[in-house]
Amino acid sequence: MADQTKMAIISIHGTLDMAYPPLILASTAATLDIESAIFFTFYGLQILKKDAETHLKVAPLGNPAMPMPVPNIIGAIPGMTGIATSMMKNMIKKNGVASIPELISLCQETGVRLIACQMTMDLFGFKKEDMIDGLEYAGAATFMEYAANAKIHLAF
């Protein structure tokens, strides 16, 4: 019997819009019988915090693809991050897209390994009690061992 296909994802961005791709791809892969692991490091750890739904934001500055009907430089005006975040959350709700907590639950239910980088946890002073339940805590070497045997590699 052939080895099961594996996918290794690295999540390094802690914004609302960058939380979706790794969670959607990993949960979709799991439903297709592709074993998956996401390694959350640096700002990506924000996605795994208990209050992620309230603190994840959309950064309009430096995001030229953002579908806002105004020039990108407007993102530098105070309050625009809040407006962009509110707009994105309304779009998500209006279109019936799953929330970040729902996607995390789906990943956990389908066996996706959610790995929090221990070095980054220590670096930023995060505590395990700040994070959602059901995570693995490991270093880069552990993830590299997994990734070395994966056929699909993605970074967000």
Task: Tell me what the structure shows.
This protein has 156 residues and is an alpha/beta fold. It has one domain: Hypothetical Protein Ychn, Chain: A, CATH 3.40.1260. Helices cover 39% and strands 15% of the residues. It contains six helices and five strands. A five-stranded parallel sheet has the order 4-3-2-1-5, with helices on both faces. It is globular, with a radius of gyration of 16 Å.
As for the CATH topology, it is Hypothetical Protein Ychn, Chain: A
Mean of all residue-level pLDDT scores? 89
- Going by helix content, strand content and strand pairing, the class is alpha/beta
In CATH, the architecture is 3-Layer(aba) Sandwich
Task: State which percent range the strand residues make up.
Answer: 15-25%
Number of helical regions: 6
The biggest beta sheet is recorded as:
5 strands, parallel
- CATH 4th-level superfamily: DsrEFH-like
**N- and C-termini, Cα separation:** 32 Å
N-to-C SSE string, H for helix and E for strand: EHEHHHEHEHE
* Count of strand segments: 5
CATH classification class: Alpha Beta
The coarse overall form would be globular
- Rg result: 16 Å
Report low-confidence residues grouped into runs of 5 or more.
none
Helix content: 25-40%
Counting structural domains, the number is 1
Structure, briefly:
With 156 residues, this protein is an alpha/beta fold. The chain has 6 helices and 5 strands, in the order E-H-E-H-H-H-E-H-E-H-E. It has a 5-stranded parallel β-sheet with strand order 4-3-2-1-5, sandwiched between helices.
Which features does this protein show?
single chain, 156 residues, alpha/beta, Hypothetical Protein Ychn, Chain: A, five-stranded parallel β-sheet, 39% helix, 15% strand, globular
